[in-house]
């Protein structure tokens, strides 16, 4: 009988010890989770872009600002030229090309404007004289290569049919060559990744369009 009571006491003691171990383990787990450091941010989170997708200040250099401020009016003039093709061009190929140019460059204008606003820099045409953003102004003294003068734009507006197609292609080739020159400068001297990526895209896409326009003019 005494032997049986001893076995019962031993079983109770073992059960009590096991229960205490489980409680202590649970408490230790709780303390560990409450004191553990917050997970580290991914190495890709550089802070250079806000959650809204706009560029943040401090992630660019003066060349990036110059690129955006120059390319915005440059693109605006190309869009203005492309807009004339719908009612003046004869060739369906010219009309299609003009539509493609407008479709590509309008969003880039918006993107570059967003960068400049995020950087606290002036967006061409937003206040001030805004002269640099006017599609038909005289850019003879402008540092932006490939821009058309007032006279060039006036001539293009006065043409239609085959004459318009030829003038449009010739002017747009020069315009694209200027944009490519500006983009290559950004690729070489810029610091802001998205701006350099856009510059690369401009070089690629507009070089291909120059080849396409040369074929339309019978140069290839």
UniProtKB/TrEMBL annotation:
Residues 64-217 form the DUF305 domain. This is Lipoprotein. Keywords: Lipoprotein, Signal. The keyword Signal applies. Residues 28-66 are annotated as: Disordered. InterPro entries: DUF305_CopM-like, Ferritin-like. Residues 1-25 form the signal peptide. Pfam families: DUF305 (PF03713).
């Amino acid at each position: 009988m005494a032997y049986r009571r001893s076995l019962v006491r031993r079983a109770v003691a073992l059960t009590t010890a096991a229960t205490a171990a489980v409680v202590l383990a649970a408490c230790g787990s709780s303390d560990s989770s409450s004191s553990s450091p917050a997970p580290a941010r991914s190495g890709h989170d550089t802070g250079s872009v806000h959650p809204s997708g706009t560029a943040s200040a401090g992630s660019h250099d003066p060349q990036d600002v110059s690129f955006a401020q120059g390319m915005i009016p440059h693109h605006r003039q190309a869009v203005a030229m492309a807009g004339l093709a719908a009612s003046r061009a004869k060739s369906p190929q010219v009309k299609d090309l003009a539509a493609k140019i407008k479709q590509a460059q309008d969003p880039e204008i918006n993107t570059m404007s967003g960068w400049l606003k995020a950087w606290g820099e002036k967006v061409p045409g937003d206040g001030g004289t805004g002269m640099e953003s006017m599609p038909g102004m005289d850019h003879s003294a402008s540092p932006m290569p490939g821009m058309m003068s007032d006279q060039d734009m006036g001539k293009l507006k006065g043409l239609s049919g085959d004459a318009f197609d030829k003038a449009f292609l010739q002017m747009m080739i020069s315009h694209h060559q200027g944009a490519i020159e500006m983009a290559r400068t950004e690729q070489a001297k810029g610091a802001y990744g998205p701006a350099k990526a856009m510059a690369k895209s401009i070089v690629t896409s507009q070089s291909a369009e120059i080849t396409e326009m040369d074929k339309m003019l019978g140069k290839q």
